[in-house]
Description:
Elements: H1 9-17, H2 21-35, E1 42-44, E2 63-67, E3 72-78, H3 86-99, E4 114-120, E5 131-134, E6 152-158, H4 173-183, H5 191-199, H6 201-211, H7 215-313, H8 318-325, H9 329-336
Parallel strand pairs: 3-4, 4-6
Antiparallel strand pairs: 1-2, 2-3, 5-6
Amino acid sequence: MRSANLLNDFAFKYVFGEDCKEANDALKSLLTVFLERSVNKVVVKNSEMVKDYSKMKNPRLDLLVEFDDRTMVDLEMQLRQTQDYLPIRFSYYLARLHGSQQLEGKYYGELKETIVLVFFNVNLIDNNRMCNTFTLKNEDGLSFVKETEDRMKIRTVEMAKLDVNKPLEDMNEQEKMIYYFLNCHKGMDDSKIKVMIESDGVIQMLEKRVETISDDGWKKIIEDFRKLHENEERMERQLELEEAHKAQEEAKKTLQEANKLNQEANKLNQEADKKVEEANKQVEEVKKRADESDKEIEKMNQERVLMIQTMLKNGMSVSQIAKCLSKGEEEILEVLK
């Protein structure tokens, strides 16, 4: 066993992105195989390695490469699912890459092709294809633009879908390269790797690049990768804690607002109760006054009856009494009933 390991994004960028002939040759082979197109010249636009990743919240170890026809490819090795949903993340990478082109004084037809090429060690796409290409299409598969004019693509390679037990002679170039990625650490101890190194020109080019890195160099790359992802996981946990704290603060704020609304509602209820009480009090006062008025009227009626009865006893006639009280005789008789 050797320390060489292509299954980490740190080593991936170093192996294919370093500014040297071996790395550039390996990169051209990789792009030729997985983009299924001839690659004569390619330039890495961000060959520098991350120096201090301990303070980086989300370090990216992608390779941004440009072909001689100015096609731009964002190349990345993604080993695991993260807090960010990967398909959405890489859709954003494609949009950002495509939108980075300078168009001042130019037509949109002059936009160059942009491709995001991602190697996954997890299964994301719900089919059996190891390699998938995604473009702008409608529900029926109709392309938004002509296939020859489609300048935005996402190319995914799901390495976990490789049948590692498939006979070497039945593997295509893509499957062979992925097998090499998955088993590079075994070197000549793996029978398929041994045969490919001895007879396959593409794999020989990759192996030549791998062999330019010493065993100590590989150990350092792997250690840096471990530290990088420990830091990434720490940052993710910190982000989760921050989001949990934020959610807790928002819940606390919501509870305070609810309590405030409840207090205001109680205050409104108390004010309403007070107004109802005052209204009831006023009604009682009105009823009391009405009762007193009724009693006063009753008393006056009784006194009037006694007065009329007295006047009758004194010999006055009904007509005389009516005239004396300025009432009609019918009213006097009605009072006496």
